[in-house]
């Protein structure tokens, strides 16, 4: 596993062996001494393009500096500029790219991932893409998700924050399994209202959980929320639906008020009266 703490300690020890200050190493590297300080504390790592300069300044090989794990061997091929050929020869796994992704530019990660996607041994999966999503630009992610199969809505939760609203809505529409409200809640902030309404309509037998419905309320259209609220009202107390009042259409609120009165909950009416 690529470890910034142990690598930082190695950089500090090698610098001291050369009797160099952080400022001197920074000058040789063309970076600020704060950058060197952050490397040595394990807060960050040198850009992949700086690793060769760093090993030269410390008079060591990259293996001595970082180790010789599969991810480090891949990093050396990035430095050499033949990483795509190395990946296509199936000498490295996608997890190794994930480990060194923080050292790479988004374009480098995207091109390398494409090389993995071109390999015949493994198709691109949502889980594989999710691990690299923080290091890829939206344009790369949008391109890679075009042909990905989606089993369930829950699979999208990890990658949703990194995709465009249009892309996550498209992916959600491809989900094979029907969604429940809890699952929809995990992606609701990232999809369009119309897409969320459509996902709800595709699951007519969905069990309406009031807590989950409350989390979804700001993201659903009033019409869809109203239908779900009425469904929930049939199986529970109308007073429990009161927390949804600010988001409900007037006609549903009037039905809600009638139900509350029938249940003898006059004192509850003041909670929804501002919305009536």
Characteristic terms for this protein:
276 residues; mainly alpha; 434 Repressor (Amino-terminal Domain); elongated; 57% helix
- Helix percent reads 55-70%
Structural class by helix and strand composition: mainly alpha
Along the chain, the helix and strand elements come as: HHHHHHHHHHHHHHHHHH
Strand segment tally: 0
Domain unit count: 3
Which sheet architecture does the biggest sheet show?
Answer: none
Shape: elongated
* Arithmetic mean of pLDDT: 82
Beta-strand percent range: under 5%
Distance between the termini: 59 Å
Number of helices: 18
Radius of gyration: 27 Å
Structural write-up:
This protein has helices spanning 4-17, 22-29, 33-41, 51-57, 62-66, 70-80, 83-88, 94-100, 106-117, 126-132, 138-144, 165-173, 181-187, 193-201, 210-216, 222-235, 250-262, 269-272. It is mainly α. The protein folds into 3 domains: 1-67, lambda repressor-like DNA-binding domains (434 Repressor (Amino-terminal Domain), Orthogonal Bundle); 69-148, no CATH class; 208-276. The longest helix is centred in the first third of the chain and has 14 residues, at 4-17. The termini are far apart. The mean pLDDT is 82.
